[in-house]
Amino acid sequence: MASYVLPVLLLLCVAASASASPGLSPRFYARSCPGALDTIRIAVEEAVRNEPRMGASLLRLHFHDCFVQGCDASVLLNDTATFTGEQSAAPNVASIRGFAVIDNIKARVEAICRQTVSCADILALAARDSVVALGGPSWTVPLGRRDSTTASLSLANSDLPAPSFDVANLTAAFAAKNLSVTDMVALSGGHTIGDSQCLNFRDRIYNETNNIDAAFATSLKSICPRSTSSGNSSLAPLDVATPTAFDNKYYGNLLAKKGLLHSDQVLVNARGGVGGLVRRYAGSPARFGKDFGAAMVRMGNVSPLTGSQGQIRLICSRVN
Ligand code: HEM
Question: Where does this protein hold Ca(2+) 2 (predicted)?
Fold first, then answer.
């Protein structure tokens, strides 16, 4: 009998470590920088008060970090004469924003604890604090990520999902990061805040006559002309109902055929439980909030650098 105990215990340990954070801990800075989390939260609250959209931009920065060579702040690295980073990749160029806010947060954190808190952890915390500042759910953020010394333009082009994607492509893009269909549908709810440029929803409003509310399409056409020679960067809210509140209205919009992006609207009619998840989240803010927080933790666990890997950058936009 006793001979079974050790293998069973080992198996349990393996199973537990497979689902736990890969070496990350919420108390990582409890001794080394106890003021870090409050400093970051206060700076995010200020930035969001100044401009509510900034909460959306900070949430997206963490997503675009984690999907490209893991949550290692690679997205923050600027191009130099000898180095090309991720910011000019198609999903990022003239689109991702929030760098000045991250630089400001990093400077405040450096002022209290020198070279202790990574830029990758700042992105993870700023994403959570942004969602909370806009009225959304909270979750505990595992910490201890370190910053990369490299970035990848080609991975930014290949690994970030595109707004033209159908459910199969979306599912594959999330599965490639070990994220489930439930994670994908819950994380898509990040589009309850923030804006999209016309060039990302033009095809949808002019060519998808069946799967879009007619009045919704008409109103968008006034800011997003059919011709690609103008209006490309005009903005529309991703959540037409409550653009700056982090709530579950995004899913209600999808049920009403008022999703802004093709990749949003396709979730409704998909098989394999995807459409069911949309209906479940539309019907329950609590269920959405819980699943969104859990999915954010899983996204934040994608291939972090830990231990002595990488470095703690002094300035987030460049390697030391
Ligand atoms: C499911 C696949 C996804 C696709 C295809 C996608 C695509 C896009 C596109 C095209 C935009 C507009 C960019 C622009 O026009 O400049 C956008 C904005 C945004 N995305 Fe996503 N996204 C996806 C998933 C996510 C996830 C997982 C999150 C976070 C959890 C997220 C958060 C946001 C936010 C908050 C904005 C607004 C940013 C701002 O206003 O600055 N997206 N996304």
Answer: 192, 239, 242, 247
